[in-house]
Specification:
By secondary structure, this protein is α/β, with parallel strands linked by helices. The protein has two helices and three strands. Strands 1-2-3 form a three-stranded parallel sheet, with no helix packed on it. α2 links the parallel β2 and β3. α1 packs parallel to α2. The radius of gyration is 11 Å and the shape is globular. The model has no long low-confidence stretch (mean pLDDT 94).
Length: 70
């Protein structure tokens, strides 16, 4: 895949399952998941394994906890 930056902020229907698909885009360096209220720690864990990810922007994701940030 040639996608390097992806912004799915404010996409209310993005779920952890959607992040599993995004995690297959191995060339992503920057990901924005702002105000995606259905994303949980499990979804965040999926994208954290992206090998080239240098910037992850998120806020207002109420289901992501401190545990998911470790």
């Amino acid at each position: 895949s040639r996608v390097s930056h992806l912004d799915v902020g404010w996409c209310d229907l993005i779920t952890d399952a959607g992040l599993c698909h995004i995690a297959k885009l191995s060339r992503i360096t920057s990901l924005v998941i702002t105000s995606c209220r259905l994303i949980t720690d499990a979804g965040l864990a999926r994208v954290s394994s992206l090998p080239f990810l240098t910037t992850l922007t998120f806020y207002n994701c109420g289901k992501i906890t401190d545990v998911g940030l470790q």
